[in-house]
Amino acid sequence: MRFLPHTDSDRQAMLESIGVAAIRDLFADIPAEFHIEQGSLALGDALSEAAIMRKFTRAADKNRNATNTRYFLGGGTYHHFVPAVVDYIISRGEFLTAYTPYQPEISQGTLQALFEFQTMIARLTGMDVSNASMYEAATATAEAALMARRVTRKSRVVMAGSVNPRYRAVTANYLSRLDGDYVEVDMGCFGTDLDRVIGAIDASTACVIVQYPDFYGSVYDLAPLRAACDAAKCLMVVAFSDISAFALIESPGALGADIAVGSGQSLGIPMGFGGPHLGLFTCKQQYMRQMPGRVCGLTTDAGGKRGFVLTLSTREQHIRREKATSNICSNQGLMCTAAVTYMALMGDEGLNTVARHSAAALQSLVARLPAHVRAAQGARYNETVLSFADSAARDRFLAAAKERALFAGIPLEQIDAAAEPRHLLIATTEMVEADDINDYLDLLEVAK
Amino acid sequence: MRFLPHTDSDRQAMLESIGVAAIRDLFADIPAEFHIEQGSLALGDALSEAAIMRKFTRAADKNRNATNTRYFLGGGTYHHFVPAVVDYIISRGEFLTAYTPYQPEISQGTLQALFEFQTMIARLTGMDVSNASMYEAATATAEAALMARRVTRKSRVVMAGSVNPRYRAVTANYLSRLDGDYVEVDMGCFGTDLDRVIGAIDASTACVIVQYPDFYGSVYDLAPLRAACDAAKCLMVVAFSDISAFALIESPGALGADIAVGSGQSLGIPMGFGGPHLGLFTCKQQYMRQMPGRVCGLTTDAGGKRGFVLTLSTREQHIRREKATSNICSNQGLMCTAAVTYMALMGDEGLNTVARHSAAALQSLVARLPAHVRAAQGARYNETVLSFADSAARDRFLAAAKERALFAGIPLEQIDAAAEPRHLLIATTEMVEADDINDYLDLLEVAK
Amino acid sequence: HEEPVLFEHAHEAPESINLPGVDGDISPELSAFARKTPASIPGLSEPEAVRHFVRLSQWNHGIETGFYPLGSCTMKYNPRVNEQVVRLPGLAHIHPDQPEETTQGVLELMYELQGWLGEISGLPYVTLQPAAGAHGELVGLMMIRAALDARGQQHRRKVLVPDSAHGTNPASATLCGMHTVELKSGADGRIDLEELKRHLDDETAALMMTNPNTAGAFESDIKEICRLVHEAGALVYGDGANLNALVGVARPGDMGIDCLHINVHKTFSTPHGGGGPGGGPVAVNEALAPYLPVPRIEKHGDTYSLVHSCETSVGPVLGAPGQIGVLLRASAYIAAFGRQHLHRIAEDAVLNANYVLNRLKGRYHVPFDGLCKHECLLTDEWQEKHGVKTIDIAKRLIDLGFHPMTVYFPLIVHGAMLIEPTETESRETLDAFCDAMIDIADACEAGDTAMLHDAPLKPFRRRLDETQAARKPVLVWPK
Amino acid sequence: HEEPVLFEHAHEAPESINLPGVDGDISPELSAFARKTPASIPGLSEPEAVRHFVRLSQWNHGIETGFYPLGSCTMKYNPRVNEQVVRLPGLAHIHPDQPEETTQGVLELMYELQGWLGEISGLPYVTLQPAAGAHGELVGLMMIRAALDARGQQHRRKVLVPDSAHGTNPASATLCGMHTVELKSGADGRIDLEELKRHLDDETAALMMTNPNTAGAFESDIKEICRLVHEAGALVYGDGANLNALVGVARPGDMGIDCLHINVHKTFSTPHGGGGPGGGPVAVNEALAPYLPVPRIEKHGDTYSLVHSCETSVGPVLGAPGQIGVLLRASAYIAAFGRQHLHRIAEDAVLNANYVLNRLKGRYHVPFDGLCKHECLLTDEWQEKHGVKTIDIAKRLIDLGFHPMTVYFPLIVHGAMLIEPTETESRETLDAFCDAMIDIADACEAGDTAMLHDAPLKPFRRRLDETQAARKPVLVWPK
């Protein structure tokens, strides 16, 4: 086994030093009935490295991917450009194979990268502080609800129906085992009707959760909600799925969010069939000590030099155990390094270009839609819903597009079980070229 | 441009500091008639990184490659297994982006790796010393001939006709502009007839160059040649194309070679359409100071610690100019790092397994050949020549095999213009599986 | 050399990266929402960005640069081929919602991994979804709770947790709407059967246990423990953080554990990445299988699919099918060992831990006697007499070229030092580490303790002031 | 921490890597030739091997870790996307002798690159084959010689080489069966027209010149130089090592150069790799085109092919079509700049060199006045008065965090220091470097020179004894 450094004579010498005759003697404290016979497990044969590459290459070749197919898919996962530098940096063993930086003196690389990450995420979302990541957006949304309950000492959670159905489902699931109400507000449209949301707020409400841009790509004014939350003394939680938006449109922080959570997958992380992605968690300064997850902070060393450490750990499970703000331990450290590398390569200008191109591609497509396909109305960032005459028309189009190496969208009911099967959730990024849009429009002919 | 760090205001400030108004003023010493208009060169449009990946991916997809096709191709380039670790190590910027280690204090990584490389190559070839690489095998063979002329102060070079035709052609080309005879000895078979070679030696001969295993994969006893060289006071130069052989069969050094040169591509370096590969150059200790190329040696630092430096540089062009042992400057440094990493992962046992599997695959195939296809006789390592009834039969087979994702061999005349077009040069490595051989044999049916 | 924080870079951003896409107009409706002030993300040229992050990386210790004996963290070598596997375009650049017939390859691999983890754990029904160990704990407890509810036992909400447990255990119970009761460990650091019996009642939902426990000792009473818990109508949750001691040698499911999470970033070598991503698949027995979360990966005929709805399921627990890239690496690790060699992981891991224990036991206090499994527990009791504490020993190890062991955990002993060498360390390295530990013990006994208190002196930074960081938190660079 | 030489590893090789393939018998004939004693290649487990080489890498300076102002070496940033490009399986894992219809993609890219290099150099006919700059020189001289021979001028074997030239120039001439005559540079470091005329005769085959020259100065008389050489019936060979000063701004071919090699590992950013692999394509004008080596990459209709035979060709010079992986990277670099931006390479490179020259010229002796191109030349004349030499300045720079400049080259000045910043360095970095140089000059003037003589003190090793290494060479570890 190429991963095991011992020779048999090493093992023998070590056993002698320990004073036992055989390795199995070291397992004498496990009752004999539980010892399993060597080689008896129903696993595959041991594979050489070459065989492993062959096996996985064959499996990978069964999947269509974004190097051979055009993607108009969103819904929480986006095909944005990933610079080669990002992958190189996170492939370096010093980042890749490091543990959580509990020993700061020999972890300043990870820690400074986390600090830079937190700063950039706070700036991009317009929030005061960011933690050092959550698993992904759905669980981050659930944790935001829990945090709002801690902050407000109230328990009712109001969720807009235009939040990504997966974020809603996970949040509802997390809350279902705890005391307190959870209310989802039906929107009745492919957008966010804030009047309905505001109407659901009451005095027991801990927070209202909206998505911005919402699940359907809609962008709208959060000011009325901010006012309503102030009036009800509840927190305004803003979820987001494609953070690239905030290089173009006003940030959740500028619009008054108390907590903003979402996905950082757009920041240099491949789609990867859904993970590992990057959950983001940001909030106002005053709520900092109620945040879940790890946080990196600035300090000085014994020689007076600037340095970084994990901090506020008294919130965390390894110290506070059952009273911790969350049970989260391993989070998405390496993805933070990917995101900060990505953002450093992009800067304001690059991020803005990503957002402009993403939005412009959608606009270019929507503006030229034929009469038999309708797009949802109102301001959209890079995602919208197309409606077809019926599901047959839509599915004809999807099949034709797939044939032409183009994934034209996600059948809405695939994510939102309640949706009619004639709608299509579509997303564009800077990876969509003008020709792809032309092809898309041409293909729509079959949906007539 | 993402590779240029200056902003325009940086440039302006720098120009002011220099005291010129515009960047083009810095080119005032170039006559105006030679200034070309910006953007006037017939190059492509500037491409984004994403567009570059797309462009090269499309081109790459037009090539069939070893992840989707079985390779029975050799002739100097072999599809051996390359461990992922090798690629990782040579991708690390500290190795990849370093210069030739002229400043040893901050180049000990490269230097120690080179020293380890030289040691391993010397051990594997059975020679006393190795340099720190040549471009590739053909030019290394030519340089061996030149070195033999320096050592012996004689000028005639005898070349066996069973040396790879490309090594022969380049050597002949190098020698053609210098005084002295160059003689190629026709073999009359797909192997090496040492009697003929020995017959070509005379008193003016500087060296005899043979290949072992030869171009046709033949393995033979070099003892008679060693005796003949001793008698004629000329050097015995042994070329090789797949160094993996020497983990299984006797090394050139053990058989008395004065100089052994060849390719190290088999040591963890992908085929890469022919390059960059790795030229190897080894010799006996007493000829060390006549070697071409860079050499790394052991020494101590000002604090008495062990360290490594490039040494024997007085042989080299930057010191000796027109009297240098060679004009070589940049060589294949990174490929040495690849090879030493590969060998460290393999060790004696792994290298031997590579060689055994490579040879066993050939044996398994040859032993089961149908009557209408003949293989060359005698001991072969992992390469041999198959002969078909006629070129039509051979080409039918090649076409059928290609159809079944199997490159069945190289038409011999493609490398050796003198060969009849009914022969096929085939090679096997440890990447050939038993099923591939079965398929190969099945496919031979069409050559009936 | 110091590397500035990105926000300190003196110069303005150069021209940005050249990006693909449609350089057209955005809609007028969207323009109305334009961001008013830029985010102030500093942009670097590519050469500068690479140099910045490469230099930062050089201040990190990683498993590739040195020994990492962190107890209960299983810092083993992370194979490089696994990094190639996950970067195959057909695995990296695929969307979870693209047509299922275009993702059969990845689904097949995940389905196979489910089967393997079921086989290895002895608990055949597996969800790959949980994103990390703690997440797996939550999901496992959800399933236990659902099973009890299905039996009409909504009153069972008490979770017993030994005082040696990871902090995630009680935290996960809380998150699952349950409450915990701490079991005091016995004198041997193991679960005390009497203590257990005292707390088992008809409100008990589960015992959460780690086996081997965090003192590195196997809970030899495991069969009796499970019997008692089951007899009381509760279930046994296994924390798989220490599975490296058992893999291929014994199976938690065979011992009576009902539900186990598996930290693939420990046992199956997926890289820790400076704190994740991890992966915490949960394996359960047949009784708990109906409650597995959705989506589930199922095979019908020759077709693999993600099944999103199931009435008995505890529901979705993540917005994705799982941390696929992490799981792929785990699958590749298991494939490399295969059925022939898998047991050798545990064997060499346990051999290494006992070797270290044996070499150090005369020089450091060993709180619990006997064989250890994949990790061994020491304390600073003997060094404290010389004024040297666990923290000093840990920091001195840094100067000697090693990452410290896990310190001050488990909480059941004073000044704990928990050492886990894993199967991928050589005897040379173990000896060098033990020599360093013995040097430190020597220094204590010789009274040569100043360098221990001042340590570390060699790395880029000396001891950092954690109190200052927590009192006045500065979590972002000021604008 | 010290990292042992591989052969010092204490323990025997563990089980080797698991390899694919046919584990069958070899032929009895082959068995007769079995190696009698193993080669003694130490085998490491994968974790150990990775750690060994990662640690070694940490003792290297690279362009990714810091500034590398090596004059005439053009150490610029090496784009990471280019590393991805060459690793595409369809480019990495292809055999040069597989059927041509299965390699059209790579041939197309190479054909395109030939055209680009022809366009950039102003010399439209290009061979990509030469493996490095020196190899390109040899191939260029072969072509010049062939052209002269074709004119019946077999007596032209004299090559004029300025004394400022790279050592490869005369060495290449020797290898091509020619002899060199050294031209003494003029007082301004440039070619002296009178000296040139004195040596031009009907035995002269070529002038080999580098423009800008190795003092960083443009040979402004280039037109007259070429006219004189051509008038004498000889040809002008251009050493393209310094092409970075001209790329996109001016073309050697337009100036009268007949033949130019291009170091793609300099101008076009392919990584130096600790000493290669490089690439030295040669571009020539129409008169020399018939002599290009084989194989050539040609396009006929829509098909690309390798043409192996051509009567007028100088023949094959390498066993392969070229260093394809290196050339692909160069192609990607040119594509990134494209026609719109290519000139900015030379512009920023020349700006940076003049900026450094301007900042340092009051503190270091500048042997040749005026504008420099992409590199600037200083000497230690002023520091030598304080007992400090170029070597001391160079080694002190290491302690200050920089790789030294090129030292003692060109040979035409005493104590040369040749500084080439390239276009990929920021003003911040240039300022930090200049500040360090000024600090050194200050230290000399203040007589604070001990630290200069002792330098370097910070890196892993202090000054190494090169004399000892050369006197008693130890090139391999003893068995």
Explain this structure to me?
Chains A, B: One of its GO terms (molecular function) is glycine dehydrogenase (decarboxylating) activity. Chains A, B: It comes from Mariprofundus erugo. The complex is a heterotetramer, with two copies of chain A (448 residues) and two copies of chain C (479 residues). Chain A is α/β, with parallel strands linked by helices and 448 residues long. Chain A folds into two domains: 70-80 and 347-447, Aspartate Aminotransferase, domain 1; 84-343, 3-Layer(aba) Sandwich (Aspartate Aminotransferase, domain 2), CATH 3.40.640. In chain A, 37% of the residues lie in helices and 14% in strands. Chain A is globular and about 80 Å long. The mean pLDDT of chain A is 97. By secondary structure, chain C is an alpha/beta fold. Chain C folds into three domains: 6-57, no CATH class; 94-341, Aspartate Aminotransferase, domain 2 (3-Layer(aba) Sandwich), CATH 3.40.640.10; 343-467, Aspartate Aminotransferase, domain 1 (Alpha-Beta Complex), CATH 3.90.1150. Chain C contains 17 helices and twelve strands. Chain C has a seven-stranded mixed beta sheet with strand order 1-7-6-5-4-2-3, with helices on both faces. A three-stranded antiparallel beta sheet of chain C has the order 10-12-11. In chain C, a hairpin with an 8-residue loop joins strand 11 (406-407) and strand 12 (416-419). In chain C, helix 3 (80-86) crosses helix 11, helix 5 (104-121) packs across helix 11 and helix 6 packs across helix 7 (168-175). The longest helix of chain C has 19 residues, at 427-445. Chain C is globular. The two termini of chain C are 25 Å apart. The model of chain C has no long low-confidence stretch (mean pLDDT 96). Chains in contact: A-B, A-C, A-D, B-C, B-D, C-D. At the A-C interface, helix 1, helix 2, helix 3, helix 4 and helix 5 of A face helix 2, helix 3, helix 4, helix 5 and helix 6 of C.
